[in-house]
C-alpha cells in the first residue's frame, strides 16, 4: 500500500500518496515498510507483533507493594531487553515522563530513566530487536534539526532498529515544568504535525531545506542532516484514542498504540475492540496508508488458573493507596464504593487490560485479541524478570502453535 508524503505547510491540506507531487517544496518520505530488507518489514511479517513495555520508571506499571524484582535502573531494563530479544520479541517500548519531586506518590515516586537516552544506549547492546523511545516533541529542548540529526544517527547505529513514539503531552504538570500553560488538545497535534513534517524532510531532502511553519516558533534555514536513515525513516508510532490523535496517526504513523475503550476487563475489551481497531485502520486507509494497532496487556500467568488468580489477588491486596494521591481524583478509592474499589484494583494490577490465567488461557486471550483487530501486543508484567521468563518458556510456544508467531 502506498506510503503518505508529509503534509505541505498548510494544515488544512491532505498529504498525497507516495510518488505524488504538488507545488510544495516537500519530497516524498518512504516508510521503512517500503524496504523488504528493513528490520521493520521483517517484524511486520509476523502475524502478531510482540513487544515488551519496559519499566524504566519506579513502580513499573503496577501500583502495588507486593515484593518483586521490577526495577527502573538501566542494567535491569537492559537485561529485560536482551532476554526479550533472545525470545524473538520484535520490539520494546519505554515511556517518557516529567514529574515533580515525589512523582505520583507511593511506589510511583518519580524515579525514572529518560526513554530516549536509555534506549539509545541499548542500540549498542542489542542486535535484532527494534527500540522505540517515547519523545515529547513539543517540550522545551527539541528543535526539529536536533531531533532529525539525533534520530538519524541512532537509526544508523542500530542499522534501522530505531523507532519513535511521538507524543504531545497532556498533563498540565508537565507543561508547567517547562514554563508553559497546557496547550489545547487539538492544537498540540497541529504543532506536532509541523514538527514531524520538518523532521521527515530533513531525513529525506537531498539538499538544504528551509521551512517556516504556520504555528510553531522554530524555523529552518538551509538546514541539512546526515546520515540519512537507512530505510527511509525510523519506525513512527503514536498512542491515541481521540479524533485528532487518530487523524495524526493515520497520516504519519506505522503503528498506533491503542487502549481498550471499555476499560481493563478482558471480556468487555474484546467486545469493544473490533469497532475501535476498524475505525483506526479505516482512517489510515482514507489516506492511502496501512497502520497496525498495538495494545498493552498486563499478563498475570501461572501454571494453573487458581495459581494465577491467587497471584492477581495478592497484587491487589497490596495495592498502594499512596500512589493515587498526587494527581488523580480517586485518591481515596480504596475506601470508596464498589466502582471505586474496582478502579483501584485495576490500577494496582496495571496495563490497559489485564489477562489472568494459565499459559493456555493467556495464549487464547491473545488469539482473541488478534481476532478483534489487534495487530500486536506490548506486554507488561508485575514482576518483570521471572514473569517474562515464564511467558517466553510457557506461553510463546503456544502462540507459535496458534499460528501467531513464526
CATH superfamily: Luciferase-like domain
Helix and strand content put the structural class at: alpha/beta
Number of domains: 1
**What level of helicity do the residues show?**
25-40%
List the main descriptive attributes of the protein structure presented here.
globular; TIM Barrel; 12 helices; eight-stranded parallel barrel
Describe how the helices and strands are arranged:
Blueprint: H1 39-44, E1 49-53, H2 74-86, E2 91-94, H3 115-122, E3 130-136, H4 144-158, E4 162-167, H5 172-177, H6 185-204, E5 209-211, E6 220-223, E7 235-239, H7 243-252, E8 255-257, H8 266-286, E9 292-295, E10 297-301, H9 305-317, H10 338-349, E11 353-357, H11 359-371, E12 376-379, H12 384-401
Parallel strand pairs: 1-2, 1-12, 2-3, 3-4, 4-7, 7-8, 8-9, 9-12, 10-11
Antiparallel strand pairs: 5-6
Helix pairs in contact: 2-12, 4-6, 6-7, 7-8, 8-11, 9-10, 11-12
Question: Would you kindly provide a written description of the structure presented here, covering whatever features stand out?
Answer:
The protein has one domain: Luciferase-like domain (TIM Barrel, Alpha-Beta Barrel). Strand 5 (209-211) and strand 6 (220-223) form a beta hairpin. Helix content is 38%, strand content 14%. By secondary structure, the chain is an alpha/beta fold. Residues 1-23 and 326-334 have low confidence and may be disordered.
Summarize the structure.
The chain is α/β, with parallel strands linked by helices. The chain is built from twelve helices and twelve strands.
